[in-house]
Write a structure and sequence with these properties.
mainly alpha, YefM-like fold, 3-stranded mixed β-sheet, 138 residues, 3 strands, 50% helix
Amino acid sequence: MKGYPGHEAGSRKEQVRRVFDLGGRAAARAFGLRTGLKAGTLSTWFSLWSRQTGRTWSVQDAKNQFSSLMNAAQREPQTVTRHGKAAVVIVDAGEFSRLQMSGRSKASTFVEHLLSVPQSADADTLERMPGGLRDIDL
């Protein structure tokens, strides 16, 4: 099994990170302290991991660790890559609903957009700019 990027496979740091992703900070702290890590070390790791903006998963890792992917997506968006390029982003269902509602409230039809253009009081008195017609060779 592949380890987390920047973590040696099978290391205590990787094990704590896995618990952090699955069970959150409290579970990872309890696990880390049981394995002999210092509270300061754990706090440093948790601060770093909390600032990260979601994990990037390869398709194969996402398939192999789907439960972990779902748990992580409930906390923050997770990106799944195919051939090294972002393919999809997995988000929590509540966040997805919120995004859908915010998109709908701002969307308008083309007609509504045209009707929302401010009308000038002197719209009927607009004059053409000076200039002649162009000559066209037929």
